[in-house]
Design goal:
By secondary structure, the chain is mainly α. It has 5 helices and no strands.
Length: 151
Amino acid sequence: MTPEKIALLQEELLGLHLAADHLGYSLERCQDLIGQDGLPPEQLERLESLTSRFARLADLLIQRIFRLIDEIELTGGGSILDRIYRAEKRGWASAAELIKVRELRNLIAHEYSTEKMPEVYAAVAALSPQVLTAVPKVIAYADNVINRYPK
């Protein structure tokens, strides 16, 4: 079973790298839009793209890659919170930051009130750098995990 999980991890890492690049691009394009009112539809679309890319990267990290590494290292199981605390022990990010990321991701997935969106955009802009900083650490750790198994 482990060779299949290693192959899946390699595939997920490619997606992680691409998702991080997309979030970084969107964050850069939206920096000057955060906190502005009365934006035209084109600029609102950029902010929507930013939030979507943030949520996608958060899911990919916490739901897929963290879980997959836990399974490969035989530390799987438990809740999302357990996964987050293991990620902190591995030095990827603080548990407090990862909890905020997860909570914001959930808010994005369930927020339908347009008047709250400026707060969501500001929170995404504030937390995106922490998520993007964690990505290379996760990739380096995952590469070490992959290299432990014979090809």
